[in-house]
Write the structure tokens for this entry.
Amino acid sequence: MAMTIDGTWEPGGRRVKRLCGWLAAAGLAFVLAVIAPAGPVEAQDQTQPPADAAAAPGGEPDAPWSARCIAPHRDAPLNCQIEQRAVVTETGQLLLLVTIAVPGESRQPVLTIRAPLQLFLPAGVRVDIDGRNAEKLEFRTCDQQGCYVRTPISNATLDAMFKGLKLNIILESLNNQQLTVPMSLSGFTEVYNKVR
């Protein structure tokens, strides 16, 4: 059984309905108890009709990406990153974190994806933009917060993200169930241009 996260944006954040059922079926239920809270999202099973969701404070429908920059000291170049989170609305627990770092020295962007534990690691993470140009990325490491993919981003991939609507993150559970999490690319160009 495959599941796709509903990528529509509502005031207060992204909605993903019925994720808890998928997580339990996939052996990932405990992830809801161990991952730190973040903003709102619900999961949707494709076989179930969507339910109404309450708006949560602090989110903007057209601003799914956030940016921040820091410098190790006053004279150092800024190390910047932008990120987007997918979060379970009912619990506020983080499901997925996508970060693009732009190091101060190299200015070469690096994509990091933090996925939940209890995934089928050999399947890696598949990433595509609007369903095209799928790329398989290998997990590099796991810790108590999740499993991580880290890879440089090519100019061609960045260009596709500037023009695209959704960055799809595709994961596989231990029992070979597939979960697709579409991360909105709305506002991506504007936020990325602030930190590049």
